[in-house]
Amino acid sequence: MGLKHQSYRNSSSSKLLCFRYSALALIFASLFLFLVPFRYGPEPLFGTDHTHFNGDLRDTRFPWNHLCFGPAFEKLKLAVFSKTWPVDAAPGGMERHAETLYRALAARGHEIHIFTVPSDRKSHHDIHQGSLHVYFAANDHGSVNCSLAFEIFNRVNANGPFDYVHTESVSLPHWRAKMVANVAVTWHGIWYEIMHSKLFQELLSNPDSLLPGPMTELQEAMPRLLDEIRFFPSYTQHICISNNAADVLVKIYQLPKRKVHVILNGVDETKFTHDPIVGARFRQRHGVPGNASIVMGVAGRLVRDKGHPLLYEAFSSFTRRHPGVFLLVAGSGPWGRRYAELGPTVKVLGALDPSELSEFYNALDVFVNPTLRPQGLDLTLIEAMHCGKPVLTPNYPSIVGTVVVSEEFGYTFSPNVESFVEALELVVRDGAKKLWNKGKVCKQHAVSLFTASKMASAYERFFLCMKNSRYCRYPLPTDC
């Protein structure tokens, strides 16, 4: 018994020590990231003009979306590995991003072959629409069968080699990527950012360390980060969707600067437009009181890591002092029932069809994104901005360094209840008229950067540049 007890104590001490070292490493890595001078960092001023850039695109330290690329007269054959492809009525952000990007590239005349699975995990026929080809290669669980996908890839490649291979995050695993000569990967989230996500969730759900929380996940994050840093060089080129992620890949993951690029996500600017009349109809249809002082809205999956415990607690306190503020909740998930408990100032809409999203945004005075995931670039933020709405969002580096680069675009807060409530108070203090003016600035910013056409144009030039270095020169005579 004594030996067993001693073994248990040693094991516990070892785990505690391991966690402390992991936490210290995370702290030191964070300090290193924020103390070392930025090269990819946030835009110094709203409206910074990068159009006068003259040089090699591989040397840019800002998003390619800032540049204006001319027409491409050379057509590409691209292979794409994507986690899922939208086939149901309410696709997630990643699926909408993939469909928007690859349909836009196909519309430009490029031959696009996508290896993926249906988002509803059901059986579907492959899609062949003009230059767009989608091959469904699912295993028994509905996830991508890498062996089958690679078999189809090799068959298509044999009929004419691909110019380049693109993977959305690790849809093409790193051990498979090593078998392909030229692979570019777009990172929609990296483990360095995920560690911060686990940290925020632990602090919010278990502030006094009295209850079991995501501590185990936090302990496991550092080994996963180390593993990720080791396998990232398996990919030839790296595309980040925020300035902050690019900075991390260079300074923490130690990747060569010339292999790290920033191309921001974009949404279909023809679908997300400012339309007050549509917004007023949406309010009326869903019973928003005509005397509501401010209408706020949140959209997405109603789950913990999207920040709904944070919004629920903050709004339940805030609404007692401001009963004229109304909250629209679009999405499905376990927190939908909790929001319904908050009374008549909250309306849970359920999951909206993509065609209704623009109407939803237009019905708001301000869009709220309480996410506890400081990673990637949430499409809901830029969709709302396209509809002329200011945003209320956590002050994560990936957001304030890329999307909300000025207080003209809205409000930011630290991911805790007290800071969130303070930000909500600022929204009320500014009032609907000032929110309207902020929304106009948001619309201008979104149109200048976050459009499907700018995103597709940047990706097009990127792949041309990777295929033939003469396209890396900017500006070319055909560029605008």
TrEMBL record:
Transmembrane domains' residue ranges: 21-40
Domain Glycosyltransferase subfamily 4-like N-terminal span(s) in chain numbering: 91-269
Pfam families xrefs: Glyco_transf_4, Glycos_transf_1
Gene3D superfamilies, per database record: Glycogen Phosphorylase B
Keywords on record: Glycosyltransferase, Membrane, Transferase, Transmembrane, Transmembrane helix
Residue intervals of the Glycosyl transferase family domain: 294-431
InterPro entries reported in the protein's UniProt record: Glyco_trans_1, Glyco_trans_4-like_N
UniProt signal peptide: none
GO molecular function: glycosyltransferase activity
PANTHER family in alphabetical order: GLYCOSYLTRANSFERASE
Name of the protein this chain belongs to: Glycosyltransferase subfamily 4-like N-terminal domain-containing protein
